[in-house]
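Explain my protein.
***
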Amino acid sequence: MTRAAQALEGAGFSVVRFNFPYREKGSSRPDPMPVLKAAVAEAAARARKELAPRRLIIGGRSMGGRAASMLAADGFECDGLLLLAYPLHPAGQPEKLRDAHLRQIGVPVLCFNGTRDALCERALMERALRNLPWQMHWLDGADHSFHVLKSSGRTDDAVMQEVTAVARTWLSRLDPQPLAAVN
């Protein structure tokens, strides 16, 4: 997450990081989705108060991004959604799609996933996003953590540079002013 935050800061975002309640308690068992969504909403409210951004982008990595996407689908007031490694389905269970809420998201979306992500089969994601105005960006050879195999000829740093470049372009199309991102 630190590398992703640095990549987004390099793209012009002000990034606010936080822990979900279960992590604060030292647990490895995730909180129920209502608690996760409330934590994202609380972090966004804190960002609005402390940073006073002209626009607010919410999002996150994996489960955090899923919680943010569900919050956005519920109509949470934000100007965009940025997702890193969206977990479309559990590993090895592509029949259990987590896409029912995606059509209800009414803000611009930028989503990054690796082509080797075990939690997001590309064909299934492309089908889920058919006719949606999302910007989906596939990181060639990257896994769920955006790591690439040495044999790919790419490096993890190159992947993060790609994230920075694509996020910068997306951000510039939304508004030339810096935004705050919540993960």
In short: The longest strand covers residues 56-61. Residues 110 and 132 are 12 Å apart (CA to CA).
